[in-house]
Design brief:
The chain has about 130 residues and is an alpha/beta fold. It contains seven helices and five strands. β4, α6 and β5 form a beta-alpha-beta unit. InterPro entries: Rhodanese-like_dom, Rhodanese-like_dom_sf. GO terms for molecular function: thiosulfate-cyanide sulfurtransferase activity. This is Rhodanese domain-containing protein.
Length: about 130
């Protein structure tokens, strides 16, 4: 078990670029079809609110969904399957799942990955949104 843990630590070495609120905000105001902000929370969490222009791809289905063909992906999630070199920003509630999502995307050949580590908690605090319990 220890050996597996060490391998995981090595893989985490590369670490996705961390995006700050200040860097993310303009992307939500002028969304680009070439860049995705991906919310990896579960759908019931997304109902409480999400970052403008983001798309939902729950972490629980992320590993399998990246192998889908583009047509199946779009049918299932309602947006085009991201290209391997497309800029992707991942976020969740507190930054833990978004970090895992970055790892998964990296292992699946995606190269332009960003982690909004402050995630939903940071966003709501900065935007003055009262989180619903």
């Amino acid at each position: 078990k220890k050996q597996i843990q060490e391998q995981d630590e090595l893989r985490r070495d590369w670490d996705a670029k961390i995006l700050s609120y200040e860097e993310l905000k303009p992307k939500t105001q002028q969304p680009s079809p070439d860049e995705y902000i991906i919310d990896v929370r579960e759908p019931n969490e997304v109902l409480q609110g999400s970052i403008p222009s983001s798309v939902n791809l729950p972490l629980s289905v992320l590993p399998n969904s990246l192998h889908l063909d583009p047509a199946t992906f779009k049918e299932k999630f309602g947006f085009e399957k991201p290209r391997p070199d497309q800029p992707l920003v991942f976020y969740c509630r507190s930054g833990v799942r978004s970090t895992s999502a970055c790892d998964i995307a990296k292992r699946n050949g995606f190269t332009n990955i960003h982690n909004y580590k402050g995630s939903w908690l940071d966003w709501t605090a900065r935007e003055g949104i009262k989180p619903s319990s």
